[in-house]
Amino acid sequence: MNSTRETQQAQESGHSEVSVVVSGCAKDDARTVFDVLRAAFTTDRGSGDIPEEVAGKRPTAWVVTVDVSEARVVSGPVTLGGPVTADVQGGYQAVDRLRESLAGAFAVRVVGTVSGDQEEEVRLRLENK
Questions:
Q1: pTM of the entire structure?
Q2: 26, 77 Cβ separation under 8 angstroms
Q3: What share of the chain is helix, strand, coil (3-state, %, to 5)?
Q4: What is the pLDDT of residues 9-58, one digit of tens each?
Q5: Which of 49, 66, 119, 125 could bridge across to 45 with cysteines, CB 3.0–4.6 Å?
Q6: Which candidate, 29, 16, 28, places its Cα nearest to that of 85?
Q7: DSSP output for 92-124
């Protein structure tokens, strides 16, 4: 049986993970966003894990899971070839922390939200500053 402290730690660690789906952009822009996320947080994608486009006419989406519990400083603005859509899902504080970190590198605009009991999904539009 978990103690109250162990349960609280498990809940906090679960609320520090954010799922990010990047779409509506070129693979180079997806890589730029992933590089910024990797510089700011721990992610499930290594630096050698490069986004690739899938052949065909289907839209391509790239996914990364980010642990926002330990944030690092993002060095400054980064250039994108065009606007990028990022669908971000996680706990309210975790999503806010991720959005604030992305604002160090990009102009970030919230274009949609869906709120749940303990989590939210936010659609972000990332552009050059």
A1: 0.81
A2: no
A3: 30, 35, 40
A4: 434 445 799 999 998 888 899 999 999 999 999 998 777 666 666 666 66
A5: 49
A6: 29
A7: HHHHHHHHHHHTTTSEEEEEEEEE-SSEEEEEE
